[in-house]
Amino acid sequence: MSFGLKRDIESHAPQVQPAEKPRTSEASAAIARLSRDIEVRREPAPAAAAVSETMIRSEAFRVIRTGVFSSMNVSAAVLKTREEVREGIEQIVADIVERERMNFTLAEQMLMVDELLNDMFGVGPIEPLLADDTVTDILVNGPDQVYVERHGRLELTPLQFRDNAHVVNVAQRIAAAIGRRVDESSPMVDARLADGSRVNVVLPPLAIHGACIAIRKFSKRNITLARMAQQGNMSAEMARVLKIAATSRLNILISGGTGSGKTTLLNAMSHFIDERERVITIEDAAELQLQQPHVVSLETRPDNTEGTGGVDQRDLVRNALRMRPDRIILGETRGAEAFDVLQAMNTGHDGSMTTIHANTPRDAIARLESMVMMANGNLPLASIRRQIASAVHMIVQVERMRDGVRRITRVSEIAGMEGDIVTTQDLFVFRYDTTSYNDEVKGTFDCSAIRPVFAGRAAYYGLEDALMEAIKV
C-alpha cells in the first residue's frame, strides 16, 4: 500500500510535532542508546503492556511516530479500514528502524504499529482494555494513571498515555464521533463509543491533575435473568417473578447506586417485552440493548456553542407520547422528566421502566417525589404520592456489595396508600450472614410468601399460577 507524502494531520490524527530534519550523529547516538536500553530491559522479558509503555514514551518511538505521520495522508488513511492501513505503516516503521539503525525486534515493531493504529482508529493505549471481556470499567486519571474494574474491584494497570495532550486528543475524537464537542469552553461531555460503551470526559481546568475519561463498557454477552440467577445476582424464584412482572406489563422502577448494575438488569428484563409492542427508549447516551424488532431509540442533545438547540429528557418524553408507544423506557430518571414519566405510566403506557439512584425502595419513592416537585412545585405532596402509588407497581433494589458482586437486595411492590403514605410490601429480601465476614458476602434471598398485589394483573395474562408457585404462597 502506498501513501502520499502530504502532511495532513488534522483532527483525525493525534497531535504530533512537525517532521524533523535529518538528525545529527549525536541525536542518532542518543536514539540508539535508548533502543539498546529497551533491548536490555527485555531480560527478563517483561509483559507486553510494560514494553509498550516503555516505548511509547521513549524518544525512539517519538521519532518513528513523527516519521510515520509525516509520510502519509492521515485524512485519507482514516477513511480506510484498520487492516488496509496496517500494511503501509508496517513498511514505514521497518524503513525508519533500518535507516536509523535502531535495535528493535520484529515483535517490538509490531507493538509500535499497534500503538499507531490505536491512535488513528481506536482510543490510544487503552484500546486493548476494550477487547478484554473481564474489564467492566476503564478509568483514566490523567496521562499517568489508568485503572480498570474487574469482577467488581479496581486495579491499577501499567498503561499510560504520552502526555495530557494525548488524553485530550482521544477524548475529542470520541466526542466528535457522535457529534459532540469537548474543549476548554465545554470541558464535560457524555458520549459513547461505536460499540455502545458509555463515556464521560472531564478536561482541565475542571480536572486538576489532567484530563479524565471514564468508560463503562458495553457488555458483549447477552445478559439474561437466568444467567444472573446462575451468577448469584438473584435467586431463581426472583428471576421468575421479575419475568412475570415484565410480561404482565408492570411499571417498574429499578433503584440502586452508581455502578450497581441497574442498566444491566433493565436490559435483562426487557427480553420479556412482547415483540408486537412498540418500544421507545430515551437516554442521555444510548446504551440500552433491546432485542425487540420495533424499538425507537432517542438520545438527548446538549446546547450548541451559542447556548441553544439543546434537547433534554423531558422534551423527549413529551415527544414520545405523540409517537404511539406501547412502552416507554427511560435510561435514568434524575430530574423534572419524572413528572412526565408518571403521567405516561398513568395514561395507558403500562410496562414502562426506568432507573433511579437511591439506596432503598423508600428512598426511591422520596427521590421521585422530589423530582416531580422540581417540575411542578404547585402540586401538593399528597397528590404526588397518589400519582406514584397509581403509576409505579414495583421497585427493584440492586446493590454492588463489598465483594464486588451485584445483587438484588429487595423486590418491593407498591401496595397503595394509607392516609398520605405510600405503602409497600417486600416480596424478596437478601439477608446477609452477619456471622461470616470475609472477602465473599454470604447470605440468602428470602421470599416473604405474601400474595402480591399484582396477582390479579398476572391472572389477566394467564400467569397467576406461575406467580404463586414462584412466591411459594
UniProtKB/TrEMBL annotation:
Q: Where is this region: Disordered?
A: 1-28
Record-level Gene Ontology MF annotations: ATP hydrolysis activity
> In what ranges is there compositional bias, type Basic and acidic residues?
1-11
Q: Where is the AAA+ ATPase domain?
A: 248-402
> Which branch of life, at top level?
Bacteria
CDD domains xrefs = VirB11-like_ATPase
Question: Could you say which protein family the record assigns here?
Answer: Belongs to the GSP E family.
- Listed name of the protein: CpaF family protein
Source organism of the structure: Paraburkholderia acidisoli
